């Protein structure tokens, strides 16, 4: 499932039954933060960025650690995996609203 205003570009593989919430942008240089599995997914020289099966990805941000970024309280866009679809529930769509609250 792909929400509105999503972009999936070169260097990305999205696996089966993954959900991309509205506004998610993915490309080969994007890091994806998985809150459930506590991992960061990135592409390598030999392999594309892979979004795991049944992952639910939403747009998010992370603080800039560089001193100037900290001083200005800046953050960067980053996609975040907030959950995985439950196999026992064969939803035709996934409710994301509760995840934003």
Notable traits:
single chain, mainly beta, five-stranded mixed β-sheet, 1 helix, globular
The order of strands across the largest sheet is 3-8-9-5-6
Number of helical segments with 4 or more residues: 1
| Succession of helices and strands | EEEEEEEEHE
**Mean of all residue-level pLDDT scores:** 89
| Helix-strand makeup class | mainly beta
As an assembly, this protein is single chain
Alpha-carbon distance between the two ends: 21 Å
Low-confidence stretches: none
Rg (CA only): 14 Å
Would you write up a description of this structure?
The protein has 101 residues and is mainly beta. The chain contains one helix and nine strands. It has one helix at 67-71; strands spanning 7-8, 12-14, 19-20, 25-26, 32-34, 39-41, 49-51, 55-63, 75-84. A five-stranded mixed sheet has the order 3-8-9-5-6, with no helix packed on it. The protein has a two-stranded parallel sheet with strand order 1-4. A two-stranded parallel sheet has the order 2-7. A hairpin with a 4-residue loop joins β5 and β6 (39-41). The radius of gyration is 14 Å and the shape is globular. It starts with 6 loop residues before the first strand and ends in a 17-residue tail after the last strand.
Offer a concise description of the structure.
With 101 residues, the protein is mainly beta.
Write the layout of secondary structure elements.
Layout: E1 7-8, E2 12-14, E3 19-20, E4 25-26, E5 32-34, E6 39-41, E7 49-51, E8 55-63, H1 67-71, E9 75-84
Parallel strand pairs: 1-4, 2-7, 3-8, 5-9
Antiparallel strand pairs: 5-6, 8-9
